[in-house]
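Office hours follow-up: a student asked to see two folded examples consecutively, so here they are.
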Amino acid sequence: MNSNYSQISTAFQNISGPSKKTRNTSADVAQLAGVSLATVSRAFDPASKMRPQTREKVLNAAKQLKYTPDAIAKSLTSHSTNIIAIIMQDVINPFYSKILKDFSLHLQKYGKQLLYFYLDSPENLHNLIYQVLQYRVEGIIISSVTLTERVIEDFIDYGVPVVLFNRYVNIPQVQAVCCDNIQAGRECADYLFSKGYRTFAFIGGSDEALTSFDRKNGFLSRLMERGIHNIVIADSDFTYDSGYHAFEQLFQNNSAYPQAVFCASDIICAGVMDCIRFKYKLRIPEDIALVGFDDIQLATYIPYQITTFEQPTNLMIQKACDLILNPPPVPQIPNLTLFPCKLKIRTSS
């Protein structure tokens, strides 16, 4: 019976393959590279300062030994996960997909990793909070999400730094980074008025989307200061199709089309533009001038060439990272950092 058992055991081992080789450790890397254990640890930290030649020697030794640091073990000993969470709802919009990439690249420079959480619906944000907190994240960035003060206060209760990007709330403990959407809306009104246009429309998201709300308010308030009050407003999601259909409704519900339209985003503007050109056979900008927002890559393409506002995203991301990695010791007022936008004029206006 023992002989049979031995045969079965040997056969099982053959099926399972060879036993796993013991994993090389940082001590093996240190020995091969001729450096200390501390030097090996620092070599894998992008934020650490060391001679490039030393770092290269350690990394080459690690590659030769097929060694990689154990981030989970390191987090247990250091009580630090080096994980920053980001919550987004609108990743279809090219602007926010680029923001996600740029945040990830920027945080890597500090030895931090970005953990992305997709919010499928605002109603699920409260449940998502607890999922985020299970990862013991060191900070949370929230962008392209409709917020309530109650939701933000849940994060504060757990002592996790929270920074809002392109969003803000009136809570001193929560820092926010935005472009100056109100001022951009006012500049858009001045620009279009100076071009001689006198009838206007705004196409954007609901008032719950603060970016769209502020752009609209800046645009409308400046036009009203100039004596123009009959401004058409059409709601749209931040999508191409929604922009297309929003202009259809606007065209059908008004006796005359506006001379100029300010869109809350470039992707909306692209949909509006194609509706104007291909459904109604009107010319841009001779019949209708258009201005968008965000300066996404699509805005530069020859078929579109959208006049638009460029957000200084690199500066905004740097500020957001500074706030999340070095949160203020006490609540700061004002808790909103605004960055000016730049109008980039192209052929749509």
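And the second, which I mentioned at the end of office hours:
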Amino acid sequence: MLEFKENPNKKGREDNRGVKPASHLVGLRDVVKTYHSSAGIFTALKGVDLQVESGAFVSIIGKSGSGKSTLINIITGIDRPTSGEVVIDGTAVHDLNEEEIAVWRGRSVGVIFQFFQLLPTLTAVENILLAMDYGGYYPRTERPDQAMHLLELVGMADHAHHLPSALSGGQQQCVAIARALANNPVLLTADEPTGNLDSKSTEMVFRLFENLANSGKAILMVTHDNELAERAQRTIRIVDGRIQDEFVNR
């Protein structure tokens, strides 16, 4: 099982979120998301209810345009619900303003992208340190050691001083996962994180997600790969903006 170093000063997360008691780590209630454009009105999410516990590994599947990515963006605060409630680890995210959401997301949620999104002019460890500087969870003097610790967790310590261009796709995604863990978030979201990886790298990343869930992190993974989705603890199928089915895989 992976082990994460807590900040002994408990700096940052608890002081800025207006914490409310919550029975679930992730709780969505009757979430609706509507977009307005010159082409008309499009409702991407239609009254979605969702609960996710700490340590859960949940896959989200559905056809293109079904609302999968919108759901992830609502949960991470990248997008705002038109109506409904979004409560993450006791924080009513739907009530936060844009500045508050940015601070909350930097400290509470790790976002993993399909295309890695590593800064090309920074080394692996520098990408993580930048995220630590933004989130501010660990004291500045502790950040270099913490960054190396995270790279060790994902098996990338030997590549700490390499630029992304010197790494394979799977290695870049492992660094991106380490970066997502930079401020010890309670939740990790991943939108098609293996879509650009070969089978060996896909297996490496998936095993890492399993270990993270076993360590207590909640993982929400959007994927088009049904076989991969079935290996998560639970699968949610979205159809036309609604959760149509939920399956417990193991």
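Two things to take away from it. The mean pLDDT is 89. The first strand starts at residue 26 and ends at 37.
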